[in-house]
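## retry 2 of 3
previous attempt timed out at serialization; input unchanged, resubmitting
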Amino acid sequence: MRVLAITDGIGNIDAVTAAATADAGWRATTEDALDLIPISAGGPGFLRALAANFEGQMSVHSVPGPLRTEVPATIFTTATNGAKTAYIEAAEVCGLHLVPAAQRDPRRTTSRGVAHLLEAAVATGASRIIIGIGGTATNDAGAGMLAGLGVGAPEKLDQGPERLAHIQPRDLDFGPARELLAGVDLIVACATGAPLLGFTGASGAYAQFKGASRETAQELERVLAQFASVCEAVDSAVPTAPGVLLTPGEPQAAVDVAQLRSLPGAGSGGGLGFALGLLGARLLPGSDVVASLLDVGARAQDSDLVFVITDQLDATTLGDGPSEIGVAAARVNALATVALARRVDAGNRELATAGISAAYELFDTVSGSEASDEVAALCERVSRIARSWSR
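## retry succeeded, writing output
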């Protein structure tokens, strides 16, 4: 039997370790062949998962972190037929893990370091840059990044979202940043489909996880809406529109800023998607980007079962990220999709509607036991699933 195993992070286990553990657990019970695909749909672990699937080169750069102190961040580059692609992970630059819990306040964190990494990626000679933008500690609509690329004065753009309320159209000039990226196919792997504004947007849905109170989230919503309006007043059209394919140089029509702020993914990364869209990037679901890069559909044609490992299955994660990739792959060959998650908060009907045949939790919720060694628990749980599904 051939099993396509798509693994994301689960608990404290990253996607690559989860893949190796799944392989060990499944093979301990069966002689099945596993095609292992560790993934991240744009959030933390994006680069490590890609590096596990591709041959390429890593370069480490020192950039400003979310609290403006220097942090190390990586660019992963690959070359195909002479064309170079550079991959960036925003969480390495301004991720939530870089801010101690007691200091988390999205009113003050910055995305400026992303600009430094983009400049370094352009300097590699890459014709395509793919940036994953989930898991940030920021909620500045990418204003810090824009400041780093010369769009406006740092004292206004790079002091956290609170100062954005004072931005005027005369303070912004997108020309230099767009010129820097003009020869690059810039693709954003959005970890969420959040728009910039609204209840499901950057502030309304995610600021609370970055240290914001309800009142602070409401203020951030107001400030980001005002900033978006100023950007629209500066330039109502951006160079390109979000596409549906990963073909470099694909012709696309312009999109206006009013439309951009409402696009899925514009609010991902605390609004980084919106700022990158202003510079001509294409905002795509991270799961679509990863599935295309790794040719998951073609690999499913040679499989008999799809097995997905992810952290959580609930109303917000069903049809997103690894579960979406797994279900889409299964449909290629009319396969069953089996999922293992740390938590399963979806009922059988919801799971079936999402295309998942069966879902299991990592730990035994009946006894309430949780092993101290998550890797050992994952290996044992996978072995039990293999006994049920292998044939």
